[in-house]
Specification:
By secondary structure, the protein is of the alpha+beta class. 42% of the residues lie in helices and 23% in strands. It contains two helices and three strands; from the N terminus they run E-E-E-H-H. Strands 1-2-3 form a three-stranded antiparallel β-sheet. Strand 2 and strand 3 form a beta hairpin. The longest helix has 16 residues. The termini are far apart. 12% of the residues are buried.
């Protein structure tokens, strides 16, 4: 039995793109330019690699920075 790919995406009716990993939301890409860039990258590259990169962007921007104590 084949294992499904870990990342998936769905374009929502308002134009944003929902990125999931194992059926859990990891990022929502909003804005015409960002959505266009993502969809273009998905058409021209490896879907799993592109989605992984965009999921990592969410982690980078949503992770609080630790300061040395």
């Amino acid at each position: 039995m084949r294992t499904p790919p870990p990342f998936g995406y769905q374009q929502l009716h308002e134009g944003s793109v929902l990125i999931t990993r194992k059926c859990r939301t990891v990022n929502v890409v909003r804005g015409k330019e960002q959505v266009s860039e993502l969809l273009s990258a998905l058409r021209s590259g490896d879907t799993q690699v592109v989605l992984s990169r965009y999921a990592g962007r969410a982690r980078e921007t949503n992770t609080p920075r630790r300061t040395g104590t």
